[in-house]
């Protein structure tokens, strides 16, 4: 297809959106669905519960290490090619995951699957910017947030449903027919866009991968009580990679770590808002099962049901906020949403031992409403504050902000547990409350004259 000036025609928009929704939905679902099935996986491939964690870690590390390099590659090859290529890698690697017979082969296939997911995630929002007309972009990002919210919500249920009728292999094999459908629709409908003409910097890509992969590994070793020398060594090498990356791309017109875009106050504040919000979410999602089970005495099944209102309301509110984002100030919407999230997390932190399901449910729903109110408008703020030619770089920052926030939040939960095993969940929720407040303030700064500047 030819390039588009302001979105695809209405009759071609739907298949393109379905293609993107299937891709981002599978990439998101494959984290939630595998987390739930880890005990079954460990038994199926004959390994222990500690080792099988690498099935999750390999996927997440591959994504966080390569999402920005793939976003940069899309400026060279085009968003469409990177998305479809990533989708093809995801399909093939899902097949190999389903056929794996050992921890080693499954982990290797999960690395390849993570690379495919990173390519999909890196350009997802950039393509949405070209599929929807500018006046409907908020609505389109709302639909996208709905898909992600549903994937998180349905992950545990989908895993249980598959394992009730089939072996663990089908947790991955189910991606093959869905992926082929998305690939077919994408080949026919996704727009072909002008490329920047910049060369792809392979050394910068390696440095970028080293920066984020080693930083995440360093944070992980720190909170799991590893020797200080190992933690400091990993973080030091990560910082060296970051410094070399900035120096190498200092004069690049479209740097991989998009410092040119961070010179725009709206873009920088929106990215900070995203990191704070996803850190708060990460703190909550990791700590809440411990609060509900270890402190309040609920079973694992009850915990799943009690947590469902949060992602379910996120999915619903994403549609409402997406439509409002096309008409109301984005800074106001995000600020209100994160203030609601902060209040909801504070309310969860103060739950007493006799809390009823209703007491827990309305607090979860308030958090979900606040997070859903923030997500779509903030996505629009990030994407529209970047030049159209830098949509790939902006889309990469969207993905890395989410991943860094979630990783930081999960790591800080372990830190809170080290401070106090008994009160760790409450400490984590109070810390998440603080992150949400900082995000709300950062969002509000976009309403000031300085925060409104384009560059």
From TrEMBL:
Coiled coil: none annotated. It comes from the Bacteria. Keywords: Membrane, Transmembrane, Transmembrane helix, Transport. It is a multi-pass membrane protein. GO terms for molecular function: transmembrane transporter activity. PROSITE patterns: MFS (PS50850). SUPFAM superfamilies: MFS general substrate transporter. The keyword Iron does not apply. Residues 16-451 form the Major facilitator superfamily (MFS) profile domain. GO terms for cellular component: membrane. InterPro entries: MFS (IPR011701), MFS_dom (IPR020846), MFS_trans_sf (IPR036259). The chain crosses the membrane at residues 52-71, 83-105, 141-163, 169-191, 203-223, 229-246, 266-292, 304-321, 328-348, 360-379, 400-421, 427-448. It is found in: Membrane. It holds the Pfam family MFS_1. CDD domains: MFS_MMR_MDR_like. PANTHER family: MAJOR FACILITATOR SUPERFAMILY MULTIDRUG TRANSPORTER MFSC. This is MFS transporter, DHA2 family, multidrug resistance protein. The lineage of its organism: Bacteria, Pseudomonadati, Pseudomonadota, Gammaproteobacteria, Pseudomonadales. The gene is stp_2.
């Amino acid at each position: 297809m030819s390039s588009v000036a302001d979105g695809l025609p209405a009759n071609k928009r739907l298949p393109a959106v379905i293609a993107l929704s299937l891709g981002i939905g599978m990439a998101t679902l494959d984290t939630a669905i595998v987390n739930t099935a880890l005990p079954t996986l460990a038994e199926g491939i004959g390994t222990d519960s500690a080792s099988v964690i690498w099935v999750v870690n390999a996927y997440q590390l591959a994504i966080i290490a390569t999402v920005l390099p793939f976003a940069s590659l899309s400026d060279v090859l085009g968003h469409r090619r990177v998305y479809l290529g990533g989708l093809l890698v995801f399909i093939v690697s899902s097949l190999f995951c389903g056929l794996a017979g050992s921890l080693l082969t499954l982990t290797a296939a999960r690395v390849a699957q993570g690379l495919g997911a990173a390519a999909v995630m890196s350009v997802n929002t950039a393509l949405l910017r070209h599929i929807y007309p500018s006046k409907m972009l908020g609505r389109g990002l709302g639909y996208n947030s709905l898909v992600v919210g549903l994937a998180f919500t349905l992950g545990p249920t989908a895993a249980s449903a598959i394992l009730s009728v089939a072996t663990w292999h089908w947790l991955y094999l189910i991606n093959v027919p869905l992926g082929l459908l998305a690939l077919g629709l994408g080949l026919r409908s996704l727009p072909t866009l002008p490329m920047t003409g910049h060369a792809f910097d392979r050394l910068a890509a390696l440095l970028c991968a080293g920066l984020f992969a080693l930083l995440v590994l360093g944070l992980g070793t720190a909170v799991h009580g590893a020797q200080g020398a190992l933690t400091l060594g990993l973080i030091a090498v990560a910082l060296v990679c970051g410094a070399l990356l900035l120096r190498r791309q200092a004069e690049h017109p479209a740097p991989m770590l998009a410092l040119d875009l961070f010179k725009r106050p709206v873009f920088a504040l929106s990215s900070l808002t995203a990191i704070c919000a996803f850190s708060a979410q990460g703190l909550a999602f990791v700590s809440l099962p411990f609060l509900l089970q270890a402190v309040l005495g609920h079973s694992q099944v009850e915990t799943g049901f009690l947590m469902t209102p949060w992602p379910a309301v996120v999915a619903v509110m994403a549609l409402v906020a997406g439509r409002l984002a096309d008409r109301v100030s984005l800074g106001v919407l995000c600020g209100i949403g994160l203030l609601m999230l902060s209040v909801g997390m504070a309310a969860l932190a103060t739950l007493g031992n006799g809390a009823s399901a209703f007491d827990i449910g309305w607090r979860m729903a308030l958090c979900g409403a606040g997070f859903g109110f923030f997500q779509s408008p903030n996505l629009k703020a990030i994407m529209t504050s970047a030049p159209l030619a830098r949509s790939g770089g902006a889309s990469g920052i969207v993905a890395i902000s989410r991943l860094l926030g979630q990783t930081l939040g999960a790591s800080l939960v372990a830190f809170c547990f080290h401070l106090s095993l008994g009160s760790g969940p409450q400490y984590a929720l109070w810390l998440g409350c603080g992150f949400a407040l900082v995000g709300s303030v950062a969002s509000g700064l976009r309403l000031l004259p300085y925060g409104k500047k384009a560059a």
